[in-house]
C-alpha cells in the first residue's frame, strides 16, 4: 500500500469514529443498529486476528486470513443490501444512508488493512511455504466472487447492490 493511501485512511478514521459515536446514540434504532453492525465488524476482525496470533505459527495459513477477508466482504454486501431495502421502504433518508455507506467503506478499508498487516506478521517466512500457500490462496477476484458479487474488490458492495436495485 502506498503512503498516500495510508495517509488518506488515517484522516478518515476520526471521521468514522465521530460518526460511530454520534449515530451510535441516535434516537432512531435503525441508524443505531446499522452503526453497531459497522462497529461489530471491526471488532470481529480484530478478535479473529487475535485468535490467529495465539495459534501455533505452523497452523496459521494465508487461507486463514482469506476466510476473514471473505467474511468482511460478505458483511459489506449484506450491509448495503439492507440499506437499499430501507431506502426503498422510505425508512431511511438517502443522506444518512449515503453517510452509512461511506462509513461502512471506511470500515472495510480498515479491516482490509488489518488483515494485510496480519498477513505480513503471521505468515511463514520461508519461500517454499510462501510459494505453496500462494498457489492455494484465494486472490481478490476469488474472494469477491465467493462473497457473491463483482470481481473488482474495490467496488465490492455499493455498485453490485445498486445494479440489483436499479433493475
Which key phrases capture this entry?
mainly alpha; 7 helices; disordered C terminus
Largest sheet: none
Distance between the termini: 36 Å
The figure for the number of domains is 1
Mean pLDDT: 79
What do you see in this structure?
The model is unreliable at 155-167 (pLDDT under 50). The radius of gyration is 17 Å and the shape is elongated. The protein has seven helices and no strands. The chain has 167 residues and is mostly helical. The protein starts with a helix and ends with a helix. It has one domain.
In terms of topology, how is this protein built?
Blueprint lengths: L2 H21 L5 H26 L7 H27 L5 H29 L4 H10 L3 H8 L10 H9 L1
Helix pairs in contact: 1-4, 2-3, 2-4, 3-4, 3-6, 3-7
Outline:
With about 170 residues, the protein is mainly α. It has one domain (about 5-165). The chain has helices at about 5-25, 30-55, 60-90, 95-120, 125-135, 140-145, 160-165.
Amino acid at each position: 500500500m502506498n503512503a498516500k493511501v495510508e495517509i488518506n485512511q488515517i484522516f478518515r478514521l476520526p471521521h468514522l469514529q465521530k460518526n460511530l459515536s454520534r449515530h451510535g446514540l441516535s434516537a432512531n434504532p435503525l441508524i443505531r443498529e446499522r452503526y453497531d453492525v459497522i462497529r461489530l465488524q471491526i471488532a470481529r476482525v480484530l478478535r479473529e486476528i487475535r485468535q490467529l496470533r495465539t495459534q501455533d505459527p505452523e497452523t496459521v495459513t494465508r487461507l486463514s486470513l482469506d476466510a476473514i477477508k471473505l467474511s468482511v466482504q460478505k458483511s459489506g454486501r449484506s450491509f448495503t443490501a439492507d440499506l437499499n431495502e430501507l431506502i426503498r421502504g422510505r425508512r431511511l433518508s438517502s443522506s444518512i444512508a449515503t453517510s452509512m455507506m461511506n462509513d461502512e467503506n471506511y470500515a472495510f478499508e480498515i479491516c482490509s488493512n488489518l488483515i494485510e498487516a496480519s498477513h505480513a506478521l503471521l505468515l511463514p517466512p520461508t519461500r517454499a511455504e510462501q510459494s505453496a500457500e500462494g498457489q492455494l490462496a484465494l486472490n481478490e477476484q476469488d474472494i469477491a466472487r465467493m462473497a457473491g458479487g463483482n470481481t473488482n474488490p474495490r467496488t465490492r458492495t455499493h455498485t453490485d447492490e445498486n445494479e440489483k436495485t436499479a433493475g
